[in-house]
Amino acid sequence: xxxxxxxxxxxxxxxxxxxxxxxxxxxxxxxxxxxxxxxxxxxxxxxxxxxxxxxxxxxxxxxxxxxxxxxxxxxxxxxxxxxxxxxxxxxxxxxxxxxxxxxxxxxxxxxxxxxxxxxxxxxxxxxxxxxxxxxxxxxxxxxxxxxxxxxxxxxxxxxxxxxxxxxxxxxxxxxxxxxxxxxxxxxxxxxxxxxxxxxxxxxxxxxxxxxxxxxxxxxxxxxxxxxxxxxxxxxxxxxxxxxxxxxxxxxxxxxxxxxxxxxxxxxxxxxxxxxxxxxxxxxxxxxxxxxxxxxxxxxxxxxxxxxxxxxxxxxxxxxxxxxxxxxxxxxxxxxxxxxxxxxxxxxxxxxxxxxxxxxxxxxxxxxxxxxxxxxxxxxxxxxxxxxxxxxxxxxxxxxxxxxxxxxxxxxxxxxxxxxxxxxxxxxxxxxxxxxxxxxxxxxxxxxxxxxxxxxxxxx
Length: 459
Prior knowledge:
Helices cover about 50% and strands about 20% of the residues. The protein has helices at about 1-25, 75, 95-110, 140-150, 175-180, 215-230, 265-280, 295-325, 325-350, 355-385, 390-420, 425-459; strands at about 25-30, 45-50, 55-60, 60-65, 70, 80-85, 120-125, 130-135, 155-160, 185-190, 195-200, 210-215, 235-240, 240-245, 255-260, 285-295, 350-355.
C-alpha cells in the first residue's frame, strides 16, 4: 500500500511537470548588464524559448507538434457565412443527403486552403436548409465566398490513348490522378449531373459495405459506353479536382446501376456516398447572412473573460483558506494543478477555445471545489466524533465519494447531451465542461487524498 501511495505521488509530480511544459508559452529573455569595471565588458542574454511546440528526437524518430491554443471565430476574428440551400431540384427524400453532401464539399474546400479550425455545420429552420460556415482568420468576405464556392463538380476520367491527341500536363490534371491513370488520362462526358443518387448497400455474397451508383436516363447510356471500352481498366472518380476513388471496371454495365467495392468500412462507404451526392444533387447555395468579427473584439473579450476567471479563482482560494485553514490550502494547491492539467489537455487534444468554452472551463473550476467541500465537511464530522485524523480522512473520502460520483456523472450526462444536440458555441461549452468535470474528479479524489495522506503521515 505504501508503494502505491508513493507511485501516486511521483505520478502527480510527473504529470505536473509535463503540464507545465505544455502550458508554457513562447517567450524571449533579453538582458544586457552595465559595463563591468576593470574588464570594460558587458554581458548580454538574448534567447527565445519556443513554448508552444513539442519536439522529441530519438535516433531516426522525429516528432514535432504545435501546441499553441486554437482560438475560435469569436476570439481570433474571422468571417461567418450562413448559406441557404435551394432544394427545388431535389426530391423530399434527397434533401438531407443533398445538405450533407454540400457540407462535405465545403469542408474539403476550406481544409484544402489551410483555414485554421474551420467550423461547418448544417441547420434546418422553418423548412429552410442552411449551412453555417465559420472561418477564423479570414476577414475578407469575398475570399470566404471563394473558398466556399458553389455545388461540387463531379467528373469521371478514363485512360486515354498515348498515340494520338495532346498529352495533358500534370499541373492541369486533378491531384493524384496520374497515380491511377499514368498514361494521358482523359475526362469523359459523364458528370455529376448524370448521377441520380449514391447510397450505401451491402454485398449479398460477402456482406461488406459498398457504394451503389444509380444514373439518370442520359447517364445510363454514357456510363454503358464508358464501361464497355474500359472493361478490365480503371475508371477514376474526381470531385472538385480531388481523386475520390479509382475502381476497376470488371464488366460492361448497361442498366445504369453500378457498385463500387474495395474493402470499405461502413463509415468509409457512407462518407464516399455523401461526397458523391454532393457533386451529383442539384443544390445551389445562396448567401443568407455574413458577419465579420474583428480580432480586436476577440482579444478584448478574451482579456475580460480571463480577468473574470482569475478574480473568481482568487475568491475561491480565499474562501477555502478562510473556511478550512490548512485543508483549504491543500484544496487551493490542488485547484492550481487542476487548472494546469485542463489547459494542457486543451492544447494536446486540441480543443478550439471560444468564449462559451472558456465559460465551461471556469464553471468546472467551481465544480472542482464542490468535491473538496463535500470531502472536508465529511472529515469535520468525523473529527467531531473523536476519530483519529487519518481515520477521519479515509472515512471522509469514502463517504463523500458517492455524492461526488453522482453529481459529476449527472453533469457529464448533461454535457454529452448538449454536445450531441447543440451546435457551435453550445458544443464548445459542453466539451470544455465535460473535460473539466472529469479532471476535477481525478484532482479531488486522487491528488487531494495523496497530499492529505502525506501530511497526516508526517504528523
